[in-house]
Queue: 2 jobs
Job 1
Amino acid sequence: MDAQRTLRRQISCVGIGLHSGNKVNLSLKPAPADFGVRFRRRDLGGHDVPATVHHLAGIQLATGLACNEVSVETVEHLLAALVSLNVDNVLIELNSPEVPIMDGSAAPFVYLIQEAGVKPLQAPRKYLKIVRPIAISKGDKRISLYPSEHFKVTYSISYDHPLLRHQSRTLRITEESFIEEVAPARTFTFLKDVEMLRQNGLALGGSLENAIVLGETGVLNNALRFEDEFVRHKILDAVGDLALVGYPVIGHLVAHRAGHALHTEFAAKILEDAHCWRLVEGSSERALSPVSVPVKASAH
Ligand SMILES: [Zn+2]
């Protein structure tokens, strides 16, 4: 049996919110089978916000969720680390609306999960296996999912900037490849946009410690972690946003110039297009056995 997993023990860290600049305490706690991934705002009396597309809210520069007027922001890097390290059930406690930005990548969250350790639970994991293509597009932004035996992502980006024209990469996402090839890739921004964000009271916690900043003639940070760190970070964002379907996906995600708004709209469309996928127990390497479990309903 391919079992659901949770953390072995609680683990905590402190960071700052990218937009507020406020200090944030984050704790990851073990949770029982079929609990899923839920955020809990300790500063607001402990209301839960399940990490599913049913609770999407405020998708602009990052992905936000809300439930009963309780919100959490910038969830995508943490969700990408959890789904890629096969943590199905976890309670994420915060004392602030923003998940801390850490270094702008998912590597610190991978480290936290590895420090806590992961253990199996007495319940089978269910995967959402794509059986027919699903696609949406807006202008030249596109995103689609195709049947595949593995979870793969192909991402391409192009910007009108001398240092960042076109980058494209295909990766099969496994725990190992995520940790090595995707998690360390940092978020990026353009210097010309930083001032505009600050004037709007955003990115107050942003610095060269937590984002790659592209000036007109060069990267303001000393060095990139990968030559194509930008497109790798887009893969990271897409993996995190896709996690909001509530199950690990088996399929080939292909995206061009998309962003959080399109990723999350697409995640919601996947659940609506129920004829395009089925829930299976066990990943593709094993015998597939369809299960007749309904999509997790929004009970909150
Ligand atoms: Zn990101």
Job 2
Amino acid sequence: MTTRRQFLFAAGLLPLLQPALADNRRVVIVGGGWGGLAAASQLRQLAPGLEVTLIDRQPAFMSFALSSRWLVEPGAAPWARHDYAGLAKKYGYRFMQADVSGIDIARRSVTTADAVLPFDWLVLSPGIREDWSAWQVNDPQAIAELRRRHSGVMQSAADLPALKQRLASFKGGDLLMTIPPAPYRCPPAPYERALFIAWWLKTQKIPGKLVIVDPNPMMPAFRNILLDRFKDQVTYLDHAKVRSVDLVRKTVSTDIDDIRFDEAMLCPPQQAADVLWQAGLIRREEGGKLSGWAAQGATDFRSAADNRVFVIGDATGLVSPQFGYFPKTGQVASRMGQAVARQIAAQATGKAQTTLLPESVCHVTSSLEPLENIRIDTSYRDRGDGFLIQTVKQVRNPNPAGEDAAWAAAMYREFL
Ligand SMILES: Cc1cc2nc3c(=O)[nH]c(=O)nc-3n(C[C@H](O)[C@H](O)[C@H](O)COP(=O)(O)OP(=O)(O)OC[C@H]3O[C@@H](n4cnc5c(N)ncnc54)[C@H](O)[C@@H]3O)c2cc1C
């Protein structure tokens, strides 16, 4: 009996088919955060025949989760640093430490300083960038100086130790904290961080005041505690939008006032990371203005520019007229990573995979003495016509017993 291969060979079609098969195997993942790592490990499990290359400019994964308390307390970081080289070996993917400087969608290639990598599927999970131009700072040197001296550290967890050191050197005066306008990553995180800093100022008797400038309505769970229990430590300015910053005068200007600071954690508006702007994958609003976040499907995360390109994690843009954006949390990013891995595996192997929608669990400290947590559960269901329904449940936990650490450990087990 003539096999399909023999038939193709005889018909002179095998050389044509071989590159086509080879061309179906290369997956490139840009960004080794929660989204990229989840996609890489899940792909290796579901489709071990694929060649998976993970690219990140950093040498190791670090996490923001559980960092609020650690910032103001002595002791080791609550997370371990995980070298990508070790993770690549453990799961069987390839790791390249490099800065991705360009993506050519038409040619299906990714460019770094040393290489041009062709891809058959591309997963983009590059996280966020900060838009300092919204505060009238455009000079790259001035931005670098502001970040070095006063970053609020919401972009890269690798910068957390520097912030911890700056806080340890703070001996009093005005400590300014700006909150970015929504959407930004991990919505409760700035309030939880504020709570720990206020508690630290109070218990360490540091003669300082935490001045919070917030363009959003404050999360109700934190209002009483920050404004009542820590009223001597916290000045809270709501609906206050920073317009500009002056590093020499150590001042930010809002619509209402100029606010001077001795130390600051500056967090300008957030947007999708640079690489998505370079690739032309940012969503345009009606009227043509760039939205700042990526354009991708709400449930398949595929780019309209090429359905073999996926955008996941915090960089993703608008998904719903009802709730706007998926919450920019690690768990959502990791579920998106698993979801795109299933789609790629199904397409590459021909084996059907179940679909997966994002979900998020957030354990937030809402009181310290006595200790109390809030658990925020966000889940989604497809109404049947592609319209997503979001459900958010918020539950008080008056006797926390390490649920936050257990959650983080369970998440990390999936991709570290
Ligand atoms: C203070 C704080 C606390 C938080 N706490 C929690 C929490 O408790 N629970 C939770 O679920 N989430 C939490 N989050 C949110 C969580 O950190 C993010 O949602 C998550 O990191 C998003 O994953 P990602 O893969 O989209 O991006 P990231 O984790 O930011 O990963 C992006 C990666 O891409 C790399 N990269 C970017 N551009 C390039 C390029 N051009 N070339 C090469 N590499 C590139 C970066 O180096 C980075 O490693 C917190 C966030 C903050 C700021």
